[in-house]
Each structure stands twice: as structure tokens, then as C-alpha cells.
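User: Can you fold this complex?
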Amino acid sequence: MTGYVARDRRWQPDALTPAYKSSLKRSPQAALISFPTTISEETGPVFGHDILGPLDADLIHNFAADGASAIGPRIIVHGRVLDEFGRPVPNALVEVWQANAGGRYRHRKESYLAPLDPNFGGCGRFLTGEDGSYEFRTIQPGPYPWPNGPNDWRPAHIHFSVFGAAFAQRLITQMYFEGDPMIPLCPIVGVLNAKEAVEALVASLDMTRTVPMDARAYKFDIVLRGRRQTAFENRPEGM
Amino acid sequence: MAQKLTHLRESPSQTAGPYVHIGCTPNFAELNGVYPQDLGNVMKTGVVQGREITVTGTVFDGTGTPLRDAMIEIWQADAAGVYPGQAGCDPNFTGWGRSAGDMETGEFRFETVKPGQVGFRDGRMQAPHVTFWIVARGINIGLHTRMYFEDEAKANAIDPILSRIEHQVRVPTLLAKAQSDGHYRFDIHLQGPQETIFFDS
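Assistant: Here's the predicted assembly.
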């Protein structure tokens, strides 16, 4: 039977995670209704390079004034988008967003006292190559406090929105930084049940990809649901 | 002990957070000048085939409060029941829409076409439907649902997915209601007595 591998709901976070307070009133309580993927889930939008501008994958410069650049530790984030069978996912649109080096988002609802950086917007996007690889430049975001518990802080992180070849692969997640002591303290990280699931979201410092005298590099691979391919076609059984 | 499986595991999901609009609809978030326009705000790129419709709705939390920080995406077939990217699809229809919702009310709005029917795995036809995907602060993993059409009672009654739902009393949570000509309303309730059916597919 073709179609996409079922999502592992024990590995993925539950909807209701009380330590992350916002989930309490935003979590469905009835059981999800399961069905094998159909053409509606096995297809998805395709994006072309024509949507991309020359600075879309350079957050250091894509909001900066001419000749200026964003303040903060300069980094390259690179990796591959793969499926569960290890196959590359080419031409995947990835959108990223993040706070600035002081931990401040450029958003009207943001109230943290850290200052905005006039040369940093905080969004970027790119398409993966034939081998599923990607790379973008940014500044390392700062940690910041948020209203949950009386003293909760987010570890430094970058948000990722990923499209695969099918809507079944649609995923939004966050990338954390190796060695950050804030990771185990965070209630949003804490929605993940398995220690291995947390590790899967922590990018490794990658000195081999560092550009000397310019930017350090972090490696972050992303895995999307796999599409089954088998010679044995099951007889359809309704469901 | 047994042999180790070498498959990779899907990356764990994390909430899109309160600032998803910075990344996905930056112009809406007043972060102008980075991208010329927000992706997904136009589904019709020319003259489209079939019946043009408008879909509006609001996402409510368990207290009945509208979400104003959500991102809603839809994916659907064209009027003939062909998904964009497949042979014979309507070249002027993208099939994919994305809405940040209204800044004040949170109401989403899609200018689209009424989808045609598509097949199920066993060859039966599915009733016309639109796939919805909802992310927001407080939602740990994107919520997948479908919008069907209240005025497609005949097709809905034999739809292979709708007809297998045990609690048929909940099926109306998936039905868009015709308002005026060409306007459908589809409210989504994350929790509570009217909780929308969500899928795991």
C-alpha cells in the first residue's frame, strides 16, 4: 500500500500539555479520527525559485539598510530535509523566523524591553536542493522571557515551517542550539516526551562549515514523513 | 533484543508560537520590504474554471474566544477534482491558500473555487472537501481537518471518511454553511461542545 507512513503520536507532542499553559484551551479533547492518506494528503503545493529574492536566505542583510547588517553573532545554519526513509526531499520550501540577538521579535504584540535592531527583520526562506540540502545566514537569536510561569525563558531558537512534496508532510518546528542550558528548563521543549525527541531539535555546532573570520555554522537536519513504496499492493478494504 | 531499525524519525513538532506571522505572512505582520507579497494570499492567478466561492470563518478556543494569532492553510482540488500539479489541472488555480486572519477579529477569508470530487483509495468518490491546517500559539502540532459542504448532502452521505465517523452527531462540525450566493461559513472550534473533528491521516 502506498501513501504516507502514519505519524507516531507517542513521539510527537500531545495537544494538551498543562505546563505550557496556552495549550489548555487550545487543545482538542476528542480523539483524532484516523484514516490512511488519500490524494488530498498525498499532494501539496509546489513552489518555484521565481518566488525567491536574492536576500531571502540572508537574515543578516534582508531587512538591513544598504551597507548595514544585523547585530549579533553571525551564523550559517545548514542541513538537509529528508524523509523517514532517509531520502532527500528536494525543492522543499522552508520559511524561518526568529528574535534578534537581544531576544526581541519585530512584532506589534511583542513587549520585551530588549531593543529592536533597525537592521534586523527576522524572517527568511529558501528551497532545498536536489539532495535536500539548504543553507541560510542569520544572527544567533537571544533567549527571552515569556508569560507562562512567573519566570519562564525561551532558549535561543529559530522557527522552521516546512513543506514537503505532500500536505501530509507539512510541519512546523523549532531549532535549538547545542549546549544551551535553557533547553531543559523550557515548558515548550518540555511538551516532548522523549529525550531523543528534544535532541532531534538541537542543532550541532559544525566547525567544518564555519567560515573563518566571518560566521560559525550549525547543522540542523529535518525529517518529514516518509512515503511508502512497496511492490505489494494491498487489496483495498474500505478502511 | 532485535535488530535495530534504521529509519529516521519525523522531526518533532513545536508550536508555531505567537509570532508565526513574522515568518509566514510578514507583510501582514507589518514587516514590509522583505518579500513582495505574502504567499498564499491569492489562489486564483487568472480566469478560473468552475464556481468561484468565498470561505470565511473563525477559529475559537475552548472559552469561545477567537484566535487572533493563528495561521490557517487550505489545500484543495480544482473545480474538476484535479489537484494542482497533476495532469489536466486548472493552470490558473493554485489550490493552496494561507490566511493570518483579520488583525482585529481573527476571521480568515479565502477566495477560491468550489472543489470537484476526488477519488478515495478504493475507487469510491470523496465528497467535495477542502483540507485545513491550523497552527498557533498553544497548538503543539498542526491541526488537520476538512471542510465539507452542507449543500452536498448526497455526496456527504456516502463519503468514505464522513460515513465511518462513529459519532455522527459531530459530522456537522465539518460542514460549511452556505450564507449568501457563493459565500460559505466554516467556524472551527478547538474545544468545547462544538469541538471540530480533527484528523490523523
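Chain B touches chain A through 80 residues (CB under 8 Å). Chain B has one domain: 20-189.
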